[in-house]
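User: I'm preparing a small set of examples for a lab meeting where we compare how different chains pack in three dimensions. I only have the primary sequence for this one, and I'd like the structure in token form so I can line it up with the others. Please keep the answer compact; I'll paste it straight into my notes.
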Amino acid sequence: MERLIESEEFKHLMSLYQCAIMEVETKFNVLNTQFTVNSSYNPIDSIKRRLKSPESIQEKLVRRGLPVSAASIRDNLSDVAGIRILCPFEEDIYAVADTFLSQDDITLVEKKDYIKRPKSNGYRSLHLIVEVPIFAPEGKVLVRVEIQLRTIAMELWAELEHRLRYKQDLDPALAESLSEELRACADSCAELDLRMGNAHRKIDACRTFAATPTCMFPRIRS
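Assistant: Understood. Below is the structure token output for the 222-residue chain.
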């Protein structure tokens, strides 16, 4: 792997992924600004970026029995470049995703809805694999980026699950008990997101109603 990391081909490939992250992040920052300017409510809470480390890339290729090469990375991995969008409510996730995907230079490669169909461990999130055009010295190159959209509650749960998954020195019985607890927490988070979303819609409806004229006729003076 050390020889690969030092190769010009690998460095160039990683620079393309870095540019793709910048491109997608900029698009979401523009949406974030437009939502703020044009509406009293912004469905984007925060935007995070991530470029997979060489060690993580190698581990994933080896685990899948794939060659460790720049060509193998480009052809087989879709999550080297990643963007994570946190939204206040579940319905915001789909609104933001639809708005982003409506841009004509974004190509949707794959969509995995782990909100409507959660993973067996309770994981919930909307995953989009997209291709964005990057203009490199050799010409236009389509680069894949993984976008994860989730609520703040989903993010908190995912952080805890990640810590548990990579905690190697836990007693197996305790690890299994914590996994069961996290599965229950995932259901609680989903219920919380649902209830908070319902409350948000009711508040928004009241605000809309309050903004309309309460009387369509002139007042009669006594």
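A couple of notes for your slides: The mean pLDDT is 88. Strands lie at 46-51, 81-87, 107-113, 126-136, 139-151.

User: Perfect, thanks.
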